[in-house]
Specification:
heterodimer, A: two-stranded antiparallel ribbon, 14 helices, B: mainly alpha, two-stranded antiparallel ribbon, transmembrane helix (chain B), transport (chain B), Cyt-d_ubiquinol_oxidase_su_1 (chain B), iron (chain B), electron transport (chain B)
Chain lengths: ~325, ~475
Amino acid sequence: MDLPLIWAFILAFAVLAYVVLDGFDLGVGILFPFLPRHEDRDTAMNTIAPFWDGNETWLVLGGGGLFAVFPLAYAVVMPALYAPIIAMLLALVFRGVAFEFRFRTVRWRGVWDIAFFAGSILAAFAQGLALGTIVQGIEIEGRAYAGGWFDWFTAFSVVTGVAVVIGYALLGATWLIMKTEGPLNRLAARHAWIAGAGTLGLIGVVSAWMPFLQDAFYWRWLSFPRIALVAPIPIMVAGAAFLLFRSLANHESNRRPFLSALSLFALSFVGIGISFYPNILPPELTIWQAAAPDSSLGFLLVGASVLIPMILAYTSYSYWVFRGKVREGEGYHQHGH
Amino acid sequence: MFEGFDPVLLARIQFAFTISFHIVFPAFTIGLASYLAVLNGLWMWTGRQVYLAVFQYWLKIFAVSFAMGVVSGIVMSYQFGTNWSVFSDRTGPILGPMMAYEVLSAFFLEAGFLGVMLFGLNRVGPRLHFFATLMVAVGTLGSAFWILSVNSWMQTPAGYAIAANGQFIPQDWWAIVFNPSFPYRLVHMVLAAYLTTAFVVGAVGAWHLLKDRGNQGARLMFSMALWMAAVVAPIQIFAGDQHGLNTLEHQPMKVAAMEGHFSTNTEGAMPLTLFGLPDMEAGEMRYAVEVPALGSLILGHSLDAQIAGLDRFPREDWPNVWIVFFSFRLMVGIGLAMLGIGAWSLWHRWRGDLVEATWLQRASVLMGPMGFVAVLAGWITTEVGRQPYTVYGLMRTAESASPIAASAVGTSLLAFIAVYFLVFGAGTYYILRSMRKPPEMDEEGPRPEDPIRTAGFAQGPHMEAGDNPSRSPAPAE
């Protein structure tokens, strides 16, 4: 049994779960300045209040899991991403407490609204910077990071940073379409159009840029006959985009925009996976070089194979408990239907 | 701006700062989650409104504390990598899986059921809601289990081998998880969390009793908290003594620093130093106030036991004796004060005037924050006492740090200090403001006509009598 490979898939799943779950609640924060009525901001906040904590836990699993199963990758990538990681953590501090604080004060509510927005957008941007930095390649010497202190700051990483912000805004807007009604629902649909167009455009830019950053990416995506094997990914991205815009145009479903946006994220994620494999930090560090010994991987796999399905079960239960639309001024204290 | 600073020292300060801020919240939420589960259970069992009222009162405070614990905890899970990457690479195969188990078995459980616990009473009914409260409490204890195991392994490493590339490789997971100091540390910490919470709850109860002796909620809080103090404080002192003996066995140098024991008592008994000023240069205790032979009695359980002093260890391996000596005394002093409050409350109970015991209530108010001070002092004792090692005896702190410039560590340290004081200062203010309000019997979250922002938390169950049959107390069937 190839334990490092199994763990690479589990960890990839955890990161994807984080991106889409915290993605939509960070996205709601990113949209805050575009929800002018404070009642709408209250309602938007109430749609995510029972979930954000569980969503963010996937980030802890991403970091803790990397430490556990690929300690060398963790030890290399954290110093390489020092500034974006610290910025993300501080942003998440502001944003996390804003959930509780803004409902406890009238005078300072505006301040916590700003903290929530700024924290959300900075966390998303820092995550995008981190992604861009890893994609463009990290310099390693021996068992340590050997690059510079500002390597994370390049034109490409700024573009991926913006892409993640706009992409999360799309997730947030489509989530609000699903969870709200009336004027806020229609406002969210307008935001979803703009964020959707931006997301699609930036997926295009990043996809076109990536093959020219590292030889392995070029070889995997643009050399014949591999181009035929990977072609379904961009075709499916086009399909998901079509479904997104059609459902936004038709208003026939409140769920379909969100599901289409999720598919866009999942497909982009698979695309990055195809570029990276078999590296965890391209171009040098492979999954097997970075992995902890089998005695560590096996020990954790026993628990993970029992606990992750349980986590998925009770997380789904929690989403089911708080299903349905959130009405203005009501939150979750009355039944939703 | 940080030229000339030692990056390792800055990284140590940053770690000490962020983890000291963090530990305060788990210490409180471990105890509070269990307290909320007990209140919820008593309400289900007896149907008495006062239990629900006190539950709702502390639930709001729990929500704020938990949010602050979560966000400061996320910082911790990344700090190993940013500032201590060499340590991460080498210990990852052992500590990583244990921390991942914490996330999988405990962190998700808390976070997953927190939403139902805070907002779900109306949606799922009392029984499932109680289950959610219970799962949050179990989750906080599970977190303590794994984190204490991780910390204990760094203090008393076991079950490992060292590979050619320098990594610690797990050989025996049972020996790793249940390493020699783990059971003592876990018991000591969980009891500390329970005592800390008890004294906070007791202080709030006492504060409102001093203003209104008739307040049912305040009477319940004060009485429950002081039962906890009376029962748990003596157990904690016993557990602490056992932990100390375990430390003497595995980390004798740390105990020598805790006791300020510079020279081994080669002839005669070791005294117990109550106070004094440690002089590390000269290797002696100045102005010592001592109790003869008590040191031998406590540590060796005999009147002439010989206890190793710091002179038995290389000078470059000593921890900072000042910090360890005084933080240990602070912790023990607060523990004894807690024991005293517990005993005092038993005397008033026996006389039947606990509610009228004004001086006890005043003392309880003063003792309210002392559990946090004791927890921090205890952690400082054990962590500074472990220096100069990250993995005791095997890996030095100086060789654990990331290849990062002092300017990066220093700048991020300043950012952490600024953000933490701002954010957690505001949080503490909101918590204290919640505590200033007396517990009301209809402490039931928002009413429909209230604007939602005044609700205390985003969506509370609103619970007028007869409004919704699903939330009347379930009869014990």
